[in-house]
């Protein structure tokens, strides 16, 4: 897999990019219930349209209320899209926490230097370090333009 940073990955696969954030979904499945100041009347007027006609959802962050008008099929479509996004996020987390990325993270630089200091390492620890080093060399360093090892 290409070594993509999490910020770039989110730009490609994030909820906002795929129009799956809460505010984006709410704007597609309903309309905001408003209480606005009407300048012509000179007083605040609460929207009476759709009171009790549609189910309502109150957004916790800003307290705005949405009247939900979408059909069941559209809501099920968003459920499927969100479940797909969850699965994609799980795969990304598994990839980020597997193999050499678990120890070294995702190496994104084009040129790197790895400094090895095995001065007083026990033989068992040396084997672990050697295995970790061979993993990072095979999985990530092969995709880098230049690298140096200093022992």
UniProtKB/TrEMBL annotation:
It comes from the Eukaryota. This is VWA3B protein. It comes from Eolophus roseicapilla.
């Amino acid at each position: 897999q290409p070594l993509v940073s999490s910020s770039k990955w989110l730009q490609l696969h994030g909820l906002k990019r795929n129009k799956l954030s809460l505010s984006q979904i709410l704007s597609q499945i309903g309309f905001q219930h408003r209480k606005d100041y009407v300048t012509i009347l000179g007083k605040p007027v609460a929207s009476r349209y759709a009171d009790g006609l549609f189910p309502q959802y109150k957004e916790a962050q800003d307290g705005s209320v949405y009247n939900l008008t979408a059909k069941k099929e559209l809501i099920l479509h968003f459920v499927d899209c969100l479940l797909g996004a969850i699965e994609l996020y799980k795969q990304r987390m598994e990839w980020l926490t597997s193999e050499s990325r678990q120890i070294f993270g995702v190496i994104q630089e084009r040129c790197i230097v790895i400094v090895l200091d095995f001065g007083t390492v026990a033989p068992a620890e040396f084997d672990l370090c050697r295995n970790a080093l061979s993993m990072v060399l095979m999985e990530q360093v092969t995709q880098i333009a230049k690298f140096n090892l200093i022992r």
